[in-house]
Amino acid sequence: TAYRITVDAADAGGGRSERATLIGTTSACPAPSVFLSPAGNDAANCSAGAPCRSLDRGYRVAAPGAVVQLAGGSYPGGTIGYDPAKAGAGGRVVAVPAPGQAVTIADELRIDAQHLELRDMALAGGWQTEAGAVDVVMRNLDSRHLFINSSQQVSVIGGRVGPGQDYHPQIQSSTTTPPRDILVDGVTFHDWSASNSSVHTECLQIGSGDRITVRNSRFINCHATGNMHTSIAHQKNSSIITMPSAPSPPAKSVERPPTADAPPPEPGTVAATPWLLDRVPTPPPRIEPPDCGRLP
Questions:
Q1: At a CB cut-off of 8 Å and minimum separation 6, what does 90 contact?
Q2: Distance CA 261, CA 50 (A)
Q3: Nearest one of 175, 143, 141, 138 to 153, comparing CA atoms
Q4: For the segment 36-78, what is each residue's pLDDT rounded down to a tens digit?
Q5: CA 253 → CA 65, 151, 168, 197, 213, distances in Å?
Q6: CA 50 from chain center: how many Å?
Q7: Is the CB of residue 155 less than 8 Å from the CB of residue 290?
Q8: 56 phi and psi, to 5 degrees?
């Protein structure tokens, strides 16, 4: 579907700008072909009449590019494991609640899958992506926490992360391979605290990584060490891009050691230009394709 949007601007004195026009298109959303229910059975075939129960089973049954629809209710966490049939796939399996229904994943969810997207649900136990995870999108999720462990091409788009105490969401290495091509865009990190002054806590910690982009995000009530902390100044082939983010009460701070390229930003700011480690050329920020049915 194509859309034509025309806007102008007016000031208090009656002045008006020329009209500007934007033309955008949306793609059709595929119909769901795999179905889950809290009352389902993983021995079933995951049809509308015989739904399965777990995300892992739904992911394995789904073809690349298929939509897995979850009936409203609470589901177990566990692991969405590697499926060789999805390796090198041209499209993601998309798991999404049925229209108008709320879905909660009650326990922590671990993802070792490739080409997977989760949308519009609550992850009460938080989530982790493991070293085998490639091309994973977590879109508009309300999550207890997140850990990105040596994963590749992970996008966290929209949603909320928190609250928690005495630990922190983290992007880190769990193997000798660092996480690579990570995008955090439009995410609200909120209410991370420490029970005492000896605990190191923040809203987001980046322990290692290559080509990590954080933009358009909010850090609220980060009551301990800082809002976002990086500790990879001596890791080779690493770069972080921090882009302007939405205003967040209280003021933001980014802990980073100075380099020859640029000093760390002053407290209360997020860097408006890239901050590079080991003089690695700056990659362009990752751009995630728009959701189907929505304008980019």
A1: 64, 65
A2: 59
A3: 138
A4: 999 999 999 999 999 999 999 999 999 999 999 999 999 999 9
A5: 40, 26, 16, 18, 17
A6: 31
A7: no
A8: -60, -45
